[in-house]
Design brief:
heterotrimer, A alpha/beta (about 475), B alpha/beta (about 400), C alpha/beta (about 450), B: about 400 residues, alpha/beta, TIM Barrel, 8-stranded mixed beta sheet, 18 strands, about 25% helix, C: about 450 residues, about 20% strand, globular
Chain lengths: ~475, ~400, ~450
């Protein structure tokens, strides 16, 4: 957390009576709880200690610190908060009317409302555009999502090709600053099955590769101060494809950078020219972002809607183009092949896959297909995209239960809505599981979350209980 | 009882005069009677429009002086019967949409004996059709049973003036104009009311005839309905799916107990097959020959009914939905989608003849029946085979190449 | 009561499976004019000796070549995506995958000159929008379709691009799905006198351009600065047609039979012989055969059509009555396909025009009217008198010619794409099903593995 956000958070805590980010010095202990850590073994009966908003200790022989506020969690299950890695909540000025259930068409798509498809914004390379620049704060939807258990969520840019930089949001924020945890979390790449998008993808990756090649060339003497670094703190690590991307190498914009200032990837004003070039050519900030991506300094979420689109993606994007990424398949589309139809190609992407948490059917029939189990059985890490509709989010436990009933291991299902999407957003160091040092984003269930009588009782964000009523 | 018996009598007289006195023996490589096993090297003897002898040449005597028509290595099979046909009136002109109940109407009044459609129909081997009104109203009138003899005179065509009463259940006759009948419930109420009136009217006339009651007041709108309740004329009911199939069987078989034929039975109608099999409901299936089912399969409509035990089955074109001359194709599709071959052949011949009550005259090749037959180069259900010739009552009415 | 019927049924089934009669009574037709397009010259494949070829052999079936010939108990040998050899006693390379087709028939995949759906995508371009997992692809394959022309032919007073592509039903293979784009261009007749003058003028310019292009290499050798001739403005598609790179389809105005009009149609009767002659006039002007689209009265002038090397596609089932004004030069004929073929005009068949007809494979229509049963449209050509084997060409080689793809598809000849059907009977019999379909040498459909018709296996 940057100094800026900390101070802002303090200010807000003083000003607001609702959930604040100010950290309570008094420790908090959940005792006699069933701890579903997600990252490790389940602790059947244990204690979880929170201090300063972080998990300080957890286990079956943890001592409750002196002076702690104790919450007896007998018969309760503690889970990490939900992470929604595919969300457009806040991109519209007015709260959306609840979408009707699109259940009319047999064997097609998701029965649950999801953010609309990738084609909405047209196809373009706008990779350096930040989605948060279109964000409306102070929307009821964030509170609704938080109360439904979402403690971290993405802000996914709209459009085909390279629609921009996605953000990570903290759903309790009331201002843009407190709402935004990371305005530069991932590069959204959206495959659309048309000639324009395929051409754009192909050419953009080729151009970006040229920039990468240029960057590798030794700087022209005389070298200036800090010649090869851009921006200064970025230390490009060789990211192996398939490894979850590390958040550190990402070039961070300067805190004092103006909101409408140059996007990352282009040198901020006043900075020394990183790589002076003999002929000063204006850089395309969008291409710079994609070049950063190819260098492994950024991560991407690649949206591919169907098996057919996957084959077209492969045509457009050469096998050699590797970058840290996660695959997003927002809904099953049997009429263009659900993604399990191209299992080999998905495997070759060497990355986690975010899917709709549903069974689907074979095309034009009611014969059930279980894509997430297919992918899991093939050794692919599976996460779930459960969207940004609070109603839908409340139903996610039932949807997971159905997937589990049809053979997906329960621990995989729970990891798929917490730790896996956290990894995709690069926030798995802070959230996504119950581990010492992570944010105390907790869901307290009466009973088992995947059982019919399981009930989400309370949501805790950074160690503070979320009020039940808005 | 029949409101216009004179016309039929006239038809018979006119016809008798036209028939050549001489017998004709038709020789063929194979004869397919439809209600009996086919046989090779057969002969069919026709005299005065009727079949007078039929059998293998070795055992069947040809009357002396008979004209011999040798069809070589071709096959003989009965002319087809289509019970759901709308195009013998020049097209259109078959829906009177003002009132929902039109039991006083009849298609006899719109037959166009000179129409090309009649020639095309017989070119497909179809010799008898039930030309019925559309399905725009709950009772749309009475269809006429016709022989497909294009000519100058209607008399030479009519088999029965009141062929069947056409009833429509569900969807098509639903009335959006605000009056009763906007839903299936309203349709049922309208139909029940009309049928009860017709039944009472017929009973009153019967009682009067038996000397047990006063002479009923003449009601022109019910006069034709009498024929239904006297058992002379069946009802042919347009159904659109499962609900209509069940409603139809209940109304006409269980409640009013009249002679009936359930037509179409399409969409998900086959889901009612078991229930209809118990009642042995006469089915007239088509034009849609399949449903794409929930398991991604092409479920043949005819096969589904047949497998459930519905063996009283005919197949239609609903011409012009499927061209009238493609009745044969409809049966071929039924076979393709799993209906046994013999069932399909009978569904174009003897089955519809029995359903509509004219099996004594048409529907198979048998001694005493009308000499309505077609000459083909092989399997009469194969669309590759147009009839080389078609005969109605012994007269050559179509030769291959006659219709463009 | 039912038992005797079933017994009769069994007897009848045995009796009617003897369908030898179907070919009877037909005399061999003399071949008319020579083929209007150049003979099939398989594209030369660059020698690629390094990568071992994957061989598949379909063994023992009765093989319809698509050219009109049939080989009994023959083998079709496939190397990768092409046909290597067809014949008897072939030596199969080591490692060949053998598909047993004994007791079955083998045919080229059906080619439909008009189609839609089946994953074709849209113009823009088709190659980037095809859906290789469209369930309609399996349905098309189950019906025997392996290729079709998607998109329109274009219309106007000069040859115009309509945006179309020859789509192959290569399940799961984006690249394999598009054989070529814009191999068909279209125009409309009759032309106004001014438009005809313009066409004559443009044809003249194109001829000059083509002559200059022929001379250009020599000119360039002599003068490195020589300017390449420019395509006359607006004549790009005419150039393609005159070079043989595209086929010209001429809209002859066939409106088809309106089933609710009692056979009567309103509007101008443009598909009479005069319109056909106007189209043939274009063929003569450009010196290339054209494709006449559903020319109702073509059967009245088959020799004139053959003389220009033109071709015809039609539905043998469409019925248009003769115009009472000119009954001798109008009206459809069930024998159209047969008469045209007899005079050497290549004929392809399409689905009928009707309430539930359509050039796709839907699941909501009436079976027998759409591309779920293309073989029945060819069957109706036989009904009109066409030779049984020649009728298969209406769905194979002759259809491929009309969409400019006969160098690649339409027959089982060495060098052509391995688009092959294995069927459980005569390809044009109503009860025959495709049991296996290969496209580009790959098995893409098996009856027993798809729910569509598996339950009907007999």
């Amino acid at each position: 957390m940057t100094a800026r956000t900390k101070s802002l958070a303090l200010l807000l805590a003083l000003a607001s009576a609702t959930v604040a980010l100010a950290q309570d010095a008094r420790p908090l202990a959940f005792t006699n709880a069933r701890l579903v850590t997600v990252s490790g073994a389940v602790v059947e009966r244990g204690t979880l200690v929170v201090r300063n908003g972080k998990i300080e200790a957890l286990g079956d022989n943890v001592t409750v610190p002196a002076g702690a506020r104790v919450v007896d969690a007998s018969g309760k299950t503690l889970l990490p908060g939900l992470v929604s890695a595919f969300s457009r909540a806040g991109l519209q000025a007015q709260p959306r009317a609840e979408e009707p259930m699109p259940g009319g068409r047999r064997g097609r798509g998701s029965p649950m409302p999801m953010p609309s498809g990738g084609g909405g914004g047209g196809t373009a390379n706008k990779a350096a555009t930040k989605a948060v620049d279109g964000l409306y704060a102070k929307q009821a939807v964030f509170g609704d999502l938080l109360r439904a258990g979402v403690t971290s969520l993405a802000l996914t840019p709209v459009g085909g090709g390279f629609p921009g930089l996605g953000a990570v949001l903290r759903p309790d924020g009331k201002t843009l600053e407190t709402l935004t945890q990371d305005d530069d979390a991932f590069v959204q790449v959206t495959m659309v099955r048309d000639g324009q998008t395929k051409k754009l993808l192909k050419e953009t990756f080729e151009k970006a590769q040229k920039i990468v090649d240029d960057r590798k060339k030794p700087p022209t003497p005389p070298a200036e101060a800090k010649p090869a670094e851009k921006p200064p703190e970025a230390k490009p690590a060789e990211t192996k494809t398939g490894e979850p991307p590390k958040p550190e190498p990402k070039p961070e914009p300067k805190p004092e950078e103006k909101k409408d200032g140059p996007p990352p990837g282009q040198n901020p004003q006043g900075q020394p020219q990183a790589r002076p070039q003999p002929q000063a050519q204006p850089k395309d900030p969008n291409l710079e972002v994609v070049a950063d991506l190819l260098e492994g300094k950024r991560r991407a979420i690649v949206q591919i809607d169907s098996a057919a689109d996957m084959l077209h993606w492969q045509q457009a994007v050469a096998d050699g183009v590797k970058f840290p990424r996660a695959l997003l398949v927002p809904r099953h589309d049997p009429l263009a092949g659900s993604i399990d139809v191209v299992l080999d190609q998905v495997k070759a992407m060497q990355c986690p896959v975010l899917l709709s948490p549903d069974l689907t059917t074979q095309a034009r029939s009611r014969i059930l297909v279980h894509p997430s189990k297919q992918l899991h059985d093939a050794g692919i890490e599976v996460g779930f995209a459960f969207g940004d509709n609070p109603q839908t989010v409340r139903a996610v436990w039932f949807r997971l239960a159905e997937l589990v009933r049809h053979g997906l291991p329960a621990d995989v299902a729970l990891r798929a809505v917490t730790l896996v999407p956290a990894k995709m957003l690069g926030i798995d160091k802070q959230v996504g599981s119950l581990e010492v040092g992570k944010d105390a984003n907790l869901l307290v269930f009466a009973g088992d979350p995947l059982a019919a009588n399981g009930r989400l009782e309370t949501v805790w964000l950074a160690g503070r209980e979320v009020e039940k009523q808005p | 009882m029949n409101p216009a018996p004179t016309l039929r009598a006239a038809a018979v007289l006119t016809f008798a005069a036209a028939v050549p006195a001489q017998a004709t023996a038709h020789l063929a490589a194979r004869i397919v009677p439809a209600d009996a096993p086919p046989f090779e090297r057969g002969v069919l003897v026709e005299e005065k429009g009727k079949i007078t002898a039929l059998g293998p040449r070795a055992t069947t005597a040809i009357p002396p002086g008979a004209k011999v028509e040798d069809h070589g290595d071709l096959w003989l099979s009965p002319g087809f019967v289509d019970l759901h046909h709308h195009v013998s009136g020049g097209g259109g002109d078959i829906n009177d949409m003002t009132l929902p109940i039109n039991a006083e109407l009849r298609t006899l009044d719109v037959v166009k004996p000179s129409d090309d459609a009649i020639a095309r129909t017989v070119g497909g081997g179809v010799t008898t059709t039930l030309f019925i009104p559309g399905s725009g109203t709950n009772i749309s009138g009475f269809g006429v049973l016709l022989k497909m003899r294009r000519g100058k005179s209607l008399d030479t065509m009519v088999v029965r003036e009141l062929g069947a009463m056409k009833v429509a259940q569900g969807f098509n006759p639903e009335r959006g104009s605000g009056d009763l009948g906007a839903s299936r419930m309203g349709s049922s109420a309208l139909l029940t009311k009309a049928l009860e009136r017709g039944k009472a009217y017929a009973e009153a006339w019967r009682a009067h005839a038996a000397g047990k009651g006063p002479k009923p007041e003449f009601a022109p709108e019910l006069e034709q309905l009498r024929a239904v309740f006297d058992g002379d004329v069946p009802v042919l009911i347009h159904t659109a799916g499962l609900r209509d199939c069940i409603a139809t069987a209940r109304m006409f078989q269980d409640v009013f107990k009249v002679r009936m034929v359930l037509s179409h039975g399409c969409f998900d109608g086959w889901l009612a097959a078991a229930s209809l099999a118990k009642r042995q409901t006469p089915l007239n299936l088509g034009p849609r020959m399949y449903e794409f089912d929930r398991y991604g399969r092409f479920q043949g409509t005819c096969q589904a009914y047949w497998d459930a035990g519905c063996t009283n089955m005919s197949i239609n074109t609903d011409a012009p939905v499927v061209a009238a001359e493609e009745l044969q194709l409809q049966a071929a599709i039924a076979v393709r989608l799993g209906l046994p071959y013999q069932a399909a052949l009978q569904a174009l011949t003897i089955a519809p003849a029995r359903q509509i009550g004219i099996a004594d005259r048409v529907g198979s090749l048998a001694v005493g029946k009308d000499a309505d037959f077609q000459v083909t180069v092989g399997d009469p259900l194969d669309p590759r085979h147009a009839p080389r010739a078609v005969y109605i009552e012994g007269n050559l009415v179509h030769r291959h190449g006659d219709t463009r | 009561m039912r038992l005797p019927i079933l017994l009769t049924l069994a007897a009848a089934l045995v009796a009617t499976t003897d369908l030898a009669a179907q070919g009877r009574g037909r005399r061999p037709r003399p071949e008319g004019a020579p083929n209007p397009t150049a003979p099939a010259t398989p594209e030369a494949k660059p020698a690629d000796d390094k990568k071992p070829k994957k061989h598949t052999a379909i063994v023992g079936g009765d093989v319809y070549l698509g050219t009109g010939q049939r080989l009994t108990g023959a083998t079709v040998l496939i190397a990768d995506d092409k046909i290597a050899e067809v014949g008897h006693n072939l030596t199969l390379p080591e490692g060949t995958t053998v598909i047993d087709a004994k007791g079955r028939t083998v045919s080229p995949g059906f080619v439909c000159v008009v189609g839609n759906g089946m994953g074709a995508g849209r113009n823009g371009p088709f190659a980037d929008t095809v859906n290789p997992f469209d369930p309609e692809i399996k349905q098309g394959l189950a019906s025997g379709v392996t290729s079709f022309l998607a998109g329109g032919a274009g219309s106007g007073p000069l040859p115009t691009a309509g945006g179309n592509a020859v789509i192959k039903l290569a399940w799961g293979d984006v690249k394999g799905m598009v054989l070529q784009e814009d191999s068909v261009v279209g125009m409309s007749v009759p032309l106004s006198p001014a438009d005809r003058d313009k066409l004559v003028e443009t044809v003249k310019k194109v001829r000059e351009y083509l002559a200059e292009m022929d001379a250009f290499p020599a000119k360039k050798a002599a003068d490195p600065n020589a300017k390449e001739p420019q395509v006359p403005q607006g004549a790009e598609k005419l150039v393609a047609v005159m070079r043989g790179q595209a086929v010209l389809w001429i809209n002859s105005g066939g409106l088809g039979f309106n089933p609710f009009g009692g056979g009567r149609r309103s509007g101008p009767r443009t598909n009479d012989v005069d319109t056909i002659r106007a189209a043939l006039d274009v063929a003569k002007l450009i010196g290339k055969g054209v494709v006449l689209q559903k020319p109702t009265s073509a059967w009245l002038v088959p020799d004139e059509i053959a003389a220009t090397g033109s071709m015809v596609y039609l539905s043998p089932r469409d019925r248009v009555p003769a115009d009472p004004q000119s009954p001798d030069t109008t009206g459809s004929n069930i024998a159209s396909a047969a008469i045209l073929a007899q005079h050497g005009v290549p004929v392809a068949v399409t689905c009928p025009v009707g309430m539930f007809g359509g050039a796709g494979v839907g699941t909501g229509g009436i079976m027998g009217q759409d591309l779920n049963t293309p073989h029945l449209d060819a069957a109706f050509a036989i009904r009109g008198g066409m030779d049984n084997r020649k009728a298969l060409r209406t769905l194979t080689l002759d259809a491929a010619k009309m969409i400019g793809a006969d160098r690649r598809i339409g027959s089982l000849e060495p060098g052509k794409d391995a688009d092959v059907l294995i069927l459980d009977g005569d390809p044009l019999h109503y009860a025959t099903f495709v049991t296996t379909a290969l496209v580009n040498g790959k098995v893409v459909y098996e009856l027993a593995k798809e729910p569509l018709y598996r339950h009907l296996a007999r």
